[in-house]
Design goal:
The structure holds two protein chains of two kinds. By secondary structure, chain A is mostly helical. Helix content of chain A is 72%, strand content 0%. Classes of the chains: A mainly alpha, B alpha/beta. Chains A and B meet through helix 1, helix 10 and helix 11 of A and helix 2, strand 6, helix 3 and helix 4 of B.
Chain lengths: 363, 267
């Protein structure tokens, strides 16, 4: 910068501040993400086999505010369709999408590995095992009204992560490479047990498979509200650690030497993101691709600073999964396509396009 | 007299069975640039890792500014000692300015963004090390030497009185080697810093450091002003290498030339 001296110091300082601000979360960016999410929510609510006009959809929603009565003239079933079927489903898809994307960013950041995703250290395989055990056992039918399937999947996912962590632990530290390897081993073990149960109970294979492929056809307010207490606090914790995640991108020695409690920060971030991912998987099954690809897309669009990467990935992940679920519902009426197939089918080509377009490296 | 920036006594570090440092006692005070020399694997990098508590010492004491490192938080350690690493992964997508700003970590709260004061510290550090023109460039685009300048700037931005430099000149050409060490020596001479630099080039170390510490197989085998420490006999003992040591015609400081096995005729 040979002409640096020609720029007035205040002007230059302002320019630096502007540059750094643009690397972080900015209002245009955030508004864009919120707008996309809002549009996806409206689409997800408005489209379906029952042809409910958009204006009536809005009226039904408003009527659930205390003291508002706008839906009296409509068919009674419409209220149920919007309020009991579509809304919880759309919100669940959004929440799960945001959670998987956030966990993906966190795992990629903590492991400093572009291939990391929320299922890396056992959440998915453990959840599948937990769910399968319940499906093949008589428990599946018990428990008046509320299925214990999410509970079992949640417990399975968290147990697998706990076992992985315990195995990888050496004294007071947990080497990241060991953790990944232990995660692979624990996942294989859980997956082989799941397969064994499937072979032993062939008449349940379809149920197990459809749970594993993931979807939102069983979404309900109950399930959504059950998962929220795990997911929301985890989101809050992780969002606070955006700058720490940036520092973790230095190697372990450097991150400690610039003053970060590396071990403690990693443990907290992994615990929070695993908890959230396990809760998400427990209400939606194993939906792939979102946690791996959405973080990369966000990084390619807006850069590596986790203070924007986390919130923007959450918004994009939520938007993406709501739209993918919409396709899953509508493509093959009256039956549904598993949403995991949609996420991979739409996400992969777009990701490859971005990968080809980006000449500057992606991580 | 204030406490030394760094004081170790009887420091012993082992990786499993292998003892990397044995009974190392040394002191770095404000105003000093101490050079640490010794063959590969002598424990030089381990010393820096132990001082910053990245590895645990098996025995001995390490004090930074009078306090044992065991009692200091990471933040406080970061405020007292800054490291210029020899190698290490750097996030390729972050810009040089962002990486230098990471040096401000021990001065920032969890939710705090970098303030104008942090920006100023980063900018001054980058101007001092001559890498301000790289501020917006991504780390992935920088050469080895440029990265080293960025890492030195990050350590300066950390505003810790003790600088620990692990081969800060490894990827630099002769001009930048001299500039980097001259800068560190200047900071020490001004009295704001004290530094310990691992330097492989004995001639370079002799020109810039007031004092040299020689490590061999984890032990301190010699310590003192360059002219007293560096001679052909010591190079033979410590490095198992034949070398010629001359006195610099102007300063009298040692100049070390490896023996090429040639006689006066050039054969």
């Amino acid at each position: 910068m040979g002409q640096a001296g020609l720029v007035a110091p205040e002007a230059e300082a302002a320019q630096i501040r502007l540059y750094l601000a643009q690397r972080r979360l900015t209002w245009p960016r955030l508004s864009l993400g919120l707008l996309a999410l809002a549009a996806a929510l409206v689409l997800g609510l408005a489209v379906g086999p029952a042809n409910i006009p958009l204006s009536d959809t809005v009226r039904i929603l408003l009527s659930h505010l205390p003291g508002v009565h706008l839906s009296d003239s409509m068919p009674a079933a419409w209220d149920d369709i919007i309020w009991q079927v579509r809304l919880p489903r759309v919100l669940t898809a959004g929440l799960v999408g945001a959670t998987l994307a956030m966990s993906g960013v966190t795992y990629q950041g903590v492991f400093r590995n572009p291939l990391a995703e929320p299922y890396l250290i056992g959440v998915a395989a453990g959840a599948a095992l937990g769910a399968t055990i319940v499906i093949v056992s008589p428990l599946h039918y018990a428990f008046g009204g509320f299925s214990i399937l999410p509970l079992a999947a949640f417990a399975g996912g968290l147990s697998a992560v706990a076992v992985t962590y315990a195995i990888a632990r050496v004294g007071s530290s947990v080497p990241m490479v060991t953790l990944v390897l232990a995660g692979v081993a624990v996942s294989s073990l859980a997956t082989s047990l799941t397969s064994l149960l499937m072979i032993l109970e062939t008449n349940r294979i379809l149920t197990i498979l459809s749970w594993t492929l993931g979807g939102f056809n069983l979404s309900s307010w109950d399930r959504l509200l059950w998962a929220l207490p795990y997911i929301l606090p985890a989101m809050a914790v992780i969002l606070v650690f955006g700058r720490s995640l940036n520092v973790l991108q230095l190697d372990e020695d450097q991150a400690q030497q610039v003053g970060l409690e590396v071990e403690r920060t990693r443990l907290l971030l992994l615990a929070a993101s695993s908890l959230a991912a396990a809760a998400a998987v427990s209400i939606s099954g194993i939906i792939g691709f979102v946690g791996l690809v959405v973080p990369h897309v966000t990084r390619m669009l807006w850069g590596p600073d986790h203070r924007q990467l986390l919130p923007m990935s959450m918004l994009l992940g939520a938007t993406f999964l709501i739209l993918a679920d919409l396709l899953a519902r509508e493509l093959n009426q009256p039956s549904e396509v598993p949403v995991g197939i949609i996420t991979a089918f739409c996400g992969a080509p777009f990701f490859l396009y971005l990968l080809r377009r980006s000449h500057r490296g992606v991580f | 007299m204030t406490a030394p920036l760094l004081e170790t006594s009887g420091l012993t570090v082992a990786y499993g069975e292998r003892v990397a440092l044995r009974d190392v006692s040394l002191t770095v005070r404000k105003g000093e640039l101490v050079g640490m020399i010794g063959p590969n694997g002598a424990g030089k990098s381990t010393f820096i890792r132990a001082v910053t508590r990245v590895v645990q010492a098996q025995a001995g004491a390490i004090h930074l500014g009078g306090d044992s490192v065991q009692t200091l938080s990471r933040r406080e350690l970061g405020r007292r000692a800054a490291v210029v690493p020899q190698t290490g992964a750097l996030p390729e997508l972050f810009s040089a300015l962002e990486v230098v700003l990471m040096g401000r970590t021990p001065h920032l709260g969890l939710l705090q963004h970098e303030s104008d004061a942090d920006l100023l510290a980063a900018r001054q550090a980058m101007e001092a090390t001559g890498c301000w023109q790289l501020a917006y460039r991504r780390l992935g685009e920088l050469s080895g030497g440029e990265r080293q300048a960025v890492l030195l700037a990050r350590a300066l931005a950390q505003e810790a009185p003790l600088l620990l430099l692990d081969e800060p000149t490894a990827h630099l050409d002769i001009g930048h080697q001299a500039a980097a060490l001259a800068l560190v020596r200047l900071l020490c001479a001004r009295g704001s810093h004290g530094a310990l630099a691992v330097v492989h080039d004995l001639t370079l170390a002799s020109q810039f450091c007031q004092r040299l510490v020689v490590l061999q197989a984890g032990r301190v085998v010699a310590e003192g002003p360059p002219a007293e420490v560096i001679n052909a006999e010591r190079v033979r003992q410590v490095y198992e290498a034949e070398a010629h040591v001359f006195a610099h015609p102007l300063t009298g400081l040692p100049v070390v030339v490896p023996d090429a096995g040639l006689d006066a005729s050039g054969l």
